[in-house]
Amino acid sequence: MTGTVNTQLLNLACGLFLLTAVGVLWRRELSALIGLFTVQGLALTGIAVLLAADTGSGEAAAVAAGVGILKAGLLPWLLRRVLHRVPEARETASLVNVSASLLAAAALTLLAYAAARPLVALAPSPTARAAPVGIAVLLIGFFLAATRRRAISQIIGVLLIDNGIAAVAFLATGGVPLVVELGVSADLLLAVLVLQVLTTRLQAAFGDTDLDELRELHD
Amino acid sequence: MSPTLTLYLPLVAPFAAAGAAALLDRRVAAWAGVAAAATILAAGGALAATVTRGPAVAWGLLRADALTAFMLIVIGAVATVACWASVHHLADEAATGTDSPAAARRYLILVQLFLAAMSLAVLADNLGLLWVAVEATTIVTAFLVGHRRTRASVEAAWKYVVLCSVGIGIAFLGTVCIYATAVAAGAHGTTALNWTHLATHAAGLDPDLTRLAAGLILLGFGTKAGLAPMHAWLPDAHSQAPAPVSALMSGVLLSVAFYAILRYKTITDAVLGPTYTRTLLLVAALASLTVAAALLIAQRDYKRMLAYSSIEHMGLVALGAATGSRLAITAVLLHILGHGLGKAVAFCGAGQLLATTGSTRITAVRGLAGRHPALAGGFGLALLALLGLPPFSLFASELGIARAGLAAGHGWAIAAAFTLVLVAFAALARHGAGILLGPPDPTPATDPPTPASRPRTASIAPLALGLAAAATLGVTLGPLQDLLHAATTVVGGR
Q1: Closest Cα to residue B142, out of A187, A1, A26, A94?
Q2: Which of B48, B158, B279, B285 is the Cys-Cys partner for B319 at CB 3.0 to 4.6 Å?
Q3: Which pLDDT score, from 0 to 100, does residue A163 have?
Q4: pTM above 0.90?
Q5: Contact yes or no for B352/B375 (Cβ under 8 A)
Q6: Please, are residues B434 and B366 in contact by the beta-carbon 8 Å criterion?
Q7: pLDDT at B447
């Protein structure tokens, strides 16, 4: 594979990665959100695979495989299980309407490019130049977690934040060391498991997974 | 025992106790938990003896210098009090039938995993591993916060996991930035995130990226340390968790998160100079003190009152860290230990108060001194310790933080901060006096409280132990003096 093809594929994966995040803001049905999240996991795996092919290191290949299993396999499967257990929560209401959300996504992407300047300036390789995409997805994740009112959409927001950081790590540094990556993945998987159980408990305690109902605790 | 073995003891002991909790009877397992906590304390002491005399102990991914040894002592000391209180807490729950044996088992296992995660956080030389350990504390404590499965505790657990995961995610982005600049400076693989490597090679790091990383790290770990304005989860989680868990979360988890900030501060200060982190920490400190003082005044729930007091004390810790002189850092470390002990006793006392009265409202527990003098004594003395009155060590450390700040020329910040501390003091003292000496609630709650268990004399013992330790520290530091000095040097107090 020539270098240019590799770079183009990488850009394609990064584009898909950002596009799925914007898509998450656009759609309301939770099953569509999970579908988009799966595609995003695949795009992230693509980025990891391309970088591993670039360096040709076995460790990077193992990390790429792990990312694929976790982000495009296990996590979407867990999310679908949550959705299955709380069947009445099909759609997620947003505090902000769709067009405003998309405008916000555009603004957040611009902000990401501004914020990531030191990161890009440090390593002016083609991969590092794509790093702002990761920050953009992270900011969109924040926006999603802050404006959507369903438990599952908030979990997806947290996962988008994590995907964004993982993309920054891959694009700017070629991936964090294996032992750290392992720990981070284990933490993420356990965190989603905990959130899954808590979603069921929310449902049991409040009869709903609408986060606006969480008003027991205040000063 | 060889020092490298001691390095692994704080991890092995809680895991062994967790195993015991999975297999053995509740009573035996609870005491095994106390033994594990005491082992962490002993290992911290043994490591302290080694590293104050010689170089840091390192093996594999773990490393212990004076700061690590000190933090292990904090974890061990507070955990001993909290685990001992857990023994009585679980006995109470079993007696009143509020907890099934399975729930007690889960409680004991999770508490031990929590201790192991905190020990790993302070023992990790690799900053990536430090992050993993801090995130792991969120995961294992999630079900402890939501232990009771009431609406309030499930809500608290949800907010806790979501806000802390997001916050700690920001810290991971900061870690990635540090990694990026270290790799660009020529480091490879795991070494690039080793604190020892970064501290010695700080000169090669890129200032712009380090500045970005420093901000993200402070925001991320600051969330976990309960610094305002990222504190929203703290009062909910600390008020809903079972009392001994609140004691651990408030007494040590906040400081372990702050320990991460101190570790990064040595690196970022070497690259950027102290001004940048100082400004950020000062803002966070004053914001925390303001939030705590404002919300303490009209507080109606005594567990939330203790939670806001934690935000106040973390604000003081941030204030001292911002000053950054030798005196300030020593005072900060002493404050961490003193606050850990005082807050652990206060929360465990509050737990017994809740078990006795069935309510967390301040008005419902008025006139405690007349009804339960021993418990009132323990709780009252813990409040005095938290107010910063002698002979408890918080008096000395608050004085140290103030003096260091004035000497460094931060007169305005110190004046503002200690005005807020005074407001918090007045609020806490008023509520405390009401609880201990106030007239009992004239309108008893319409629904009679849950079958009230009388506080047993034995359950006062862990409270007395914690108070005695806090008071002794206020009088003399003893062998801790050398350790504190060595740890201050590690943090880079000038």
Answers
A1: A187
A2: B285
A3: 92
A4: yes
A5: yes
A6: yes
A7: 45
| pLDDT one-digit tens code per residue, B250-296 | 999 999 999 999 999 999 999 998 899 999 999 999 999 999 999 99
Which residue of chain A has the CA closest to B134? A187
pLDDT of residue B478: 84
Q: Which strand (E) or helix (H) includes residue B240?
A: helix B233-240
Asked if A113 reaches chain B (Cβ–Cβ under 8 Å), the answer is: no
Task: Tell me the C-alpha distance between B85 and B78, whole Å.
Answer: 11
Burial grade of B369 (CB within 10 A; 0-12, 13-18, 19 or more): middle
CB contact under 8 A, B190 and A180: yes
Residue pair B251/A157 in contact (Cβ under 8 Å)? The answer is no
Spell out the residues 6+ positions from residue B442 whose beta carbon is closer than 8 angstroms to its own. Answer: none
Any A CB within 8 A of B211 CB:
yes
Q: Parse chain B into domains and list their residue ranges.
A: 3-491
Q: Which of A33, A53, A52, A40 is nearest to A14 (CA)?
A: A40
Instruction: State the burial class of residue B470 (Cβ atoms within 10 Å of its Cβ: 0-12, 13-18, 19+).
Output: buried
B151/A contact by beta carbon, under 8 A: yes
Closest listed residue to residue B336, CA positions, set B349, B321, B324: B321
Cα of B41 to nearest chain A Cα, Å: 26
Determine if the peptide bond prior to B229 is cis (ω within 30°). Answer: yes
How many Å apart are CA B309 and CA B394, to the nearest integer? 13
How does pLDDT run across A200-217, given as a tens digit for each residue? 888 888 877 777 777 777
* Distance from C-alpha of B257 to C-alpha of B225, rounded to nearest angstrom: 5
Which 3 state secondary structure label does DSSP give A207?
coil
A145 interfaces chain B, CB cutoff of 8 Å: yes
What are B64's strand-pairing partners? B57
Among B143, B180, B193, select the one facing A123 at the smallest CB separation: B180
CB contact under 8 A, B208 and A118: yes
DSSP summary character for residue B55: P
Tell me the three state secondary structure of residue A29. Answer: strand
CB of A180 less than 8 A from some CB of B? yes
DSSP-assigned letters across all residues of B242-280: -HHHHHHIIIIIHHHHHHHHHHHHHHHHHHH-THHHHHH
